[in-house]
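Team,

Forwarding the record for the chain on the shared tracking sheet. I've put the sequence and predicted structure together so nobody has to dig through attachments.
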Amino acid sequence: MKCAPHAPRDTWRPWRDNLDHWPDAALLLDREGRVAVANMAALSRWQRNGEPLPGQHAASLLGELRRCEDGAPMLPHAALDLLGSPRPIAAQGEDAQGRGLLLRGLPLFDDCQAQVGWLVVVFDVTPTPQPDRQRDEALRFLSHDARASGATILTMLDLARQRPQVFAEGSLLRDIEREAQAGIDRSDRFVAFARAQVRPLQITRIDLTALLRLVVDATWAMAKQRQVRVLFDTAPDEAPCMADRGMLTRAMDAMLDHALGRSSPGSALHCSIAADGPWWRIALREPAAGAPEQLKLQLVRAVTQRHGGTLEIDQAADAGCIVTLVLPRPSAAELATTATHPEN
């Protein structure tokens, strides 16, 4: 493939067509750090007095955004210097109105691995009241994450039309199928998460040991396909708990699905249940390094919180990650009232 020394006129098309679906302010910058494309959220945030954003240098446009720790610009000119090796940009700070912000910048490359510019996104993370925050999270998901697979598929089809020699037919179809399934999975997780927040709990006495074994057995086919072993290390013969069986089953399944998706072939996941004073600790140790995917764990966190528990995540650079559901152990009085009618 012959590589042009400069970006063609339609360089931004694969990204531009998707940006307006994003609720956060996003900018596509050229090689000099000047704005090439701005989405609707960015126009609403920075376009003043009718002055167009394209052509303005991003470091000047975002000059009011300052880091929390030292008051320095969140996007300094040096961060966009293309003379060195471009690296992702990450900063946390606030604007002149005191709104909390996260800034993320990613270098963009063409097919020949030449950098053509940057994608810069500014997220508003100002704390909001709980009901408003839950509503905003729901709208953010529906308007962004639920569209992600569709946008990716459209981009692949567009690239296939422009450069058909790059995509073999079978490969393109497999990629489209994978992205479509990812979109369905994300939507299903969101629906389950929303239900977990509002559906009345149906509390019964359950055995956590038996329930976790059932969930592990149900993942056998997926684990075999991914060539990952799921091992049940330690657990008491019975671990009684007062909980909603359906919700807890989905939470454990989501926890395992998250771990399987991050595990490499030949690796092993380790499950355990242990008593810790007034709590049960249901732990899943995975070898994958790096931060867990918070979206996939939203359901797990929501279910544990509704049961009066917490979700703990312990990371170690050389020892993977341990995700632990911490649930309250029932009192003697609670156990006595359910002794003759256990749920399982």
